[in-house]
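Problem 3 from the worked examples.
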Amino acid sequence: MSLTTPSTAESNPEDTIIDASEFDSPAFLEDPHSLYRRLRKHHPVYHDRLHNQWHVTRYWDLVEVFRDEEAFGTRPHSYETDGVLGPTMLSLGGAEHAAQRNLVSDALVGRKLDAFTPIVRDVARSLVEGFADRREVNLTQEFTSQLPIRVIMAMLGLPMEDFVLFQRWYRQFMMGMGWADDTRAVALEARAEYEEYMTPFLEVRRRNLGDDLTSRLIREGVPDPAIKTFVSLLLSGGGETTDKAMGNMWWNVLQEPELVARLEADHSLLDAYFSETMRHSPPVHREDRGATRDVELAGVAIPYGAVVRCWLASGNRDEAVFDDPDTFDPFRGDLYSERDLRAGYFRDGLFGHLGFGLGRHFCIGYQLARREAVVGAQELLRVMKSLRLSNEQMDVIKARKRDGSIRSVADLHMEFDLR
């Protein structure tokens, strides 16, 4: 059985023929964008017979998939995510998804989120104070990987002295959300430890309710197993996306001294810098959907039950939507940067990035992620100037999971002067 799909387009055969084993290659894990470009141009909906998947890579086709939940359901999450964390809202649709999401979604947006901003600022400030005098830092290890988890723990009322435990658990959860038996086994062991920890914690909290999100879930009558699952999902998703988005943002900015200088002179640019990061270098490169019936997309027949792999990062660099898409440019004129568009993809003549997904399953913590990135950066810039990459910096943005779904800079060595 052939694992390649021919194209009738007139071009170099090496460009028009896709070998499905490329998705498993070291080159793809290092930099997937060459393959994304070829797929967008020649096979925008590509039937991968090796992995039995359909890959979607163009912006408008991705929009169609995410807006049609009736035809493209979230069933694939039932193994990757739910298999580690338990039944989550990610694998649910319709009223069931809305009911779970509504339990806390309003606390993570708008004015209610404003109440948590002092927590974000206090946590960020304390982290910065820990390394400011050294005038050098591994920013991802000492700041971006810690800020989101510490903030979420504070919002949930979890004991901060157990930060190291929760940080380890969330990392093991994330690594286990795939098809590799070894990382899945480690994740399930971490899940068992986490469950054992949370049982007495919830018993105590039930007798001493407070103003935190855990107390809110208890007051809403959510059973303990569902609370444990939600907390683990918030820690995993909130920690992973925000941590790596912040790291990727700073990695991109520090490549260009002019971008650093403009940001140091005007902190209000941070929203644009974050939006461009979520377009150009999103930490999450794909979301999977499942065909709930036979359906056609871009002229390609997709059968009932098929796994549809939606490459968000490819759509974000679609040449038909964004000019010079491979360039990191926070001042580009075609990206909507004022806020993240949960319900749409186009506003005021500009296009929204797909870094948080789209539609009903749009990332529940999208505003919290932006708030942490912006406030965290403000605290860095409050005490630092002349930010620059250290001579030790060797790492780049690349895959952090074997399936290529998560991409970030793991180590970011930075030097700076004090204000």
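Problem 4, a separate protein:
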Amino acid sequence: MISRNNTIKNFYAIFFGVIALIAIISAVVIGVMANDKVARMRMSVIDDANAYKIGQENGYKQSLYLACDSMKNLDANLGKTAVSRDTAHQTEMLAKIIVHSNQVNQCLSNLPFEASDKLSNCQKFVNQTQDYATYLLGKLSQGEQLTAAERTALCNLDYVAGNLYDFLQAYAESDSGMFITNGNGQNNVGSLSDSLADVDSNAFEYEKLIYDGPFSDSVEHKVYTPSVKLGRDKIDVIANELFTNAKFSAEINHEGKLYVYDVDNGKAYFTADGKVAQYEAYSEVTTLEAYESANADKCIESAEEFCRKLGYDVKGVWVSKTQDSVTYVNCATVIDDVIIYPDLIKVAVNDKGAVVGFEARAYLLNHTDWDVTFGQVSQSDARKAIDGALKVTNVARALVEKNNKHYLCYEFQCMQGDRQYYVYVDSATGNEVEIFKVIANTEGYTVI
């Protein structure tokens, strides 16, 4: 049995390694094509200098935002690998680290930097992270385990990636994040090099490496097919029972037929069996000061009440605030204190406590009579799968979906310093199923 498990893990290691290498080769080819395209552009005769400058500016901005996204994903996967105890899961995440490192490097190479020590440190970090992940992936493919020192090194790399992500994101959103159109001519490099020079040198510190590298995707490729189809006249009645002045607007066919109704201050989308799949309001939010004093519990209460009004028996399980004065509440079915994550409903509540957005696609596609009978693994035994560096702050029970399979898990909310993780351990096997890292950014609090 042990030999069979090792064979499976080696297969996954090689499989993900091949994927990583294919992705890297693809990125390099794309980079070469992009550089060739830019070279041809520069050799062309430019009749409109402003149009050329704006086009180049847009290209730089695109590379900058792609660098931000890739650095965020690199940060998340480094942290998740550092606290994972599952070899197959570690293999998968190390392959992603290789891909995201290469993407960051490619995006940075497309930006107009001036030579600097900080730029060299940044490029060195990304390259060494990619090489280190490749080294560790090779170890796992040989059936070896990550050592405590290697996991510590990953953790330190994670902190560096977090620092660099914060810098890139802040720069991209600042007035300084312009390379040409806010500068002095086509050869201006903007203020990126100067801003990078201001980054604390400690941000790049990490140990010398040994080699000297919640479940919202459960609705993909699914179409809602109702067992009963009501006529338009019956849906008209339901729409006016739920909303004020509901008037039929259009019929659309997108991932299943939907009937669109104009309602007071918004639009509501109904399925063919009369269920509300989506709602969007037109009301404007108030000032940031008013938003900051809003009560998260009130937002959860408003979200749950709105869901009940529409016929969905769910509870708020995750709250994320954003700078546009909206609080996003994720609601889900809860059975015998077990959170059913496939039954996810997303609700947006403004700072007045009014619902301004609603989306129930995951619930409609996944909801069924769930069996929440837990396996034989106790909570205390499941906790043994949690890395010792993590401090468990809360434990819940949850049904989760991964790769089209459902698992009844213990949900461990954990902290490592100021970093927050959610670790899901299968109640049937005691194995780690999934790890999410909480990322705080301008989009609010998200899990990756």
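Solution to problem 4. Residues 397 and 410 are 5 Å apart (CA to CA). The chain has eleven helices and 13 strands.
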